[in-house]
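Can anyone check this?
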Amino acid sequence: MDESDIPLAVLRLTEALVFASPEPVTWKTLGPLLPPHLDADRVFRALQLHCADRGVVLVETAGGWVFRTAPDLAELLRSALSERRRLPRATMEVLVVIALYQPLTRAEIEAIRGVGLSQASMDVLLETGMITSQGRKPVAGSPALWVTTPLFLAQFGLRSIRDIPGFHLALPLPGEGAGRGESRPDSEAEEEETPRTGSSP
């Protein structure tokens, strides 16, 4: 059985699940809903083909599948839709640093950027679900380690952190000698951040 042989009822069920889910739908989520002889991966591929010529297409991102506006229509719709509020520049810089160097501590974020990290930046990223803590670094004080979330990948249409532009070009963290990435896991107003003069708590 190839993709064209997937029953229409299964495609409709999968389409409804992806549409209703607030997060990318994985094969683990879809699998229990399918007949035993059907592979979830093939069902996703079949639905992707089924929707290929529609205004909304199925794309793989963040380890799962979501619906997105067809690329050829995105620009036409942009002017008709209200633009999502952009992250302040300083907050976006923090997000980029975390994405490229994760997992890393607050002090390491400050060392890379060369300025102190405002709590406002961290609060915005936490509230939007772009970052989360992932354990603590085994050093004095046990500072929290910060990483991006699947929502970050989905927001930027990435399949994994290794798809981030420049991921493999980022320099080692300050004080690290090995190449980066080898062991790392798969307010409208501008913020004012002052040059870093000491360690942040």
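Reply from J.R.: I decoded it. The domain at 89-169 is CATH 1.10.10.10 (Arc Repressor Mutant, subunit A).
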